[in-house]
Amino acid sequence: MRDTQEPRKIAVFKLNQAKVFVKISDMKKYWIITFGCQMNHSDSERIAVVLENMNYKLASAINEADLIVINMCSVRQSAVDRVYGKISDFAKLKIQNPKLKTVLTGCILKKDRKKFKNGFDQILNFQDLLKYQPKYSNNFSAFIPISNGCNNSCAYCVIPFTRGPLVCRGHQEILKEAENVIQKKYKEIWLLGQNVNDYISPTNPSVNFARLLKQVNDIPGNFWIRFTSPNPKDFSDELIDIMAESEKVTEYLNLPVQSGDDEILKKMNRSYTVEQYKNLVKKIREKISEIALSTDVIVGFPKETKKQFENTVKLLEEIKFDMAYIAKYSPRPGTAAAKMKGDVPHQEKGRRWKILTEILKQTALEKNRKYIGREIEVLVDGQKNEFFVGKTRTYKTVKFLPHDEPKALLQGTGSKNLIGQFVKVKIIDALPWGLKGRII
Question: Are residues 118 and 48 part of one domain?
Fold first, then answer.
């Protein structure tokens, strides 16, 4: 039992350039809700450490929390709407726990900040998150941010407004974090940046992204390396060569194209043409024959005509991506595109989305069928009922049974220690969005 005569300790943390003092006796449980990309999830892992340094503890469920933090994304309006949807849920939780506090952080536009003001107790910018060693979400896959912000000015993107200009971490700091997780037997590392291949080490300008990738690859250990998300305009021949030569760099690449029409790309301020993009894909596939390519596409950009959309259709049919993340354009306040006239009707955006999704479904299935009969390495990352789920080096999702023993597994006697491990799986069937297999 605590001695009541003992001086009460105070935890101090700096937020928004102001010191926050909190009594240890007042510190309770927290819960973090994350929306957005891998960078947002990486930020949340570091926010967790900030809170635990303030002697908060992770709640076992949201209704047990005394502090709820939403780390939000503003890339699309739908992401913002999801945050609005949580406000009424929090009001109900506050009836059960009147001491509950809610905090909003992450990528927030000024316009939305004003609207959210009455829905949260505080809106905060967590400063200098990269200096904190994160509390990783699991013990086998680690997000390691190498930069924050972006110097590009894509007409539709809010990143420069929410995260600011590009700031790169020193390469020694990145390598130290990578070495730390590899020593802990992590099996996968994701190098993150809003424009990851724009990286230049501030402590040694000769270390660009390609050379950083090589240095991470040269760390001893049995692990995979992935990265996201690059800009095609900055994708160098040096980077392609290092990807091809580096054993631990996986054969998967998300290479956002956004549109298959040159005029729309120019309006988007993407700084490359369709022909340049196709030539880049050709060079990558020539050097890395097993590469699986995914992309990002926006349909319904302002004044996108049916003919311009058809150029995007042709591009998807020609390149045959393994996966594509297709978004319906939504204007974001403050961006150049938000000022453009000629918004495409919502129904037409939906029609175009369906056309591209159907093309993707066909090409993805065609790509996946090539895996049938092959024995491939899979990193197991979860379990659904009697099945395990994992990813291949090419980032294909594989569902499989462990040693054909579903009854034993359901009874709690199966191979539950597979999660976080590399296993060999024979592929027996293919679907558009994944593979089915049997463990060897």
Answer: yes
Same domain, yes or no, for 83 and 163? no
Among candidate residues 196, 231, 250, the one where a domain is terminated: 250
Largest Cα span, the chain: 78
Domain boundary among 228, 250, 272: 250
Residue 431, classified by CB atoms within 10 Å of its CB into exposed (0-12), middle (13-18) or buried (19+), is middle
Write down the pLDDT at residue 62.
96
**CATH number reported for the structural domain that contains residue 24 in this entry:** 3.40.50
Structural domain range at position 327:
283-369
In terms of domains, do 349 and 385 share one? no
pLDDT of residue 416: 60
- Tell how strand 101-106 and strand 122-123 pair up: parallel
Burial bucket for residue 19 (CB in 10 Å: 0-12, 13-18, 19+): exposed
Indicate the pTM of the whole model: 0.89
What residue type is 19 in one-letter code? K
SS3 label, residue 309 = helix
**Residue 281: C-alpha distances to residues 237, 240, 253 (Å):** 11, 10, 10
Low-confidence ranges of the chain (pLDDT < 50): 1-18, 20-25, 406, 408-414
3-state helix, strand, coil in the chain (%, to 5): 35, 25, 40
Angle, CA 92 vertex, CA 88 and CA 96 arms, to 5°: 160
Q: Is residue 239 part of a domain?
A: yes
Q: Do 67 and 119 share a domain, yes or no?
A: yes
Q: How many helices (H) and strands (E) does the chain have?
A: 12, 20
How far is it, in rounded angstroms, from Cα 8 to Cα 156?
A: 51
DSSP letter for each residue of 174-224: HHHHHHHHHHTT--EEEEE-TTGGG-B-SS-TT-BHHHHHHHHHTSSSS-E
Write down the pLDDT at residue 93.
96
